[in-house]
Amino acid sequence: MEKTKGTLEAEISKALTHWEKTYLGRGSISVKSDILRDMIIVSLRGILTPAEYSLCKDKEGLLSVKENRNSLVESGADELKKIIFEITGHEVTSFYTDISTNTGERIMVFKLAEDLQSKFD
Fold it and tell me: pLDDT digits over 50-109, tens only?
């Protein structure tokens, strides 16, 4: 039986939550994944600790938190790409991520080698 788009998106969210907990030591409060053309866009909310929010009150601390958090995620990029490939069967050609120190939200974008959304249309 073919998986639906929603099922695939839910699997991606669950897998990334598990990755966060095992690789980073803690997970986000909520994760939402969306398949759009040849991209998978993932929004992770509630990822900063209270101490990190406190550090973000000045520019130096804010930049430090962003740099450290992005470095941690980037160091696991190969594993993240593998997770996406295992779930979707599509190769990830590039990976982008950034964090908002204002909202505590991280956005991840996985660019795929081909259009995944068209498989569901």
Answer: 999 999 999 999 999 999 999 999 999 999 999 999 999 999 999 999 999 989 999 999
- Cα distances from 8 to residues 3, 14, 60, in angstroms, run 7, 10, 39
Q: How many residues does the chain have?
A: 121
As a whole number of angstroms, the distance between CA 42 and CA 33 comes to 4
Give the relative orientation of helices 59-75 and 77-88 as an angle to the nearest 10 degrees. 50
Residues 6 or more apart whose Cβ sits within 8 Å of residue 34: 9, 40, 41, 42
Separation CA 34–CA 113 (nearest Å): 16
pTM listed for this prediction: 0.92
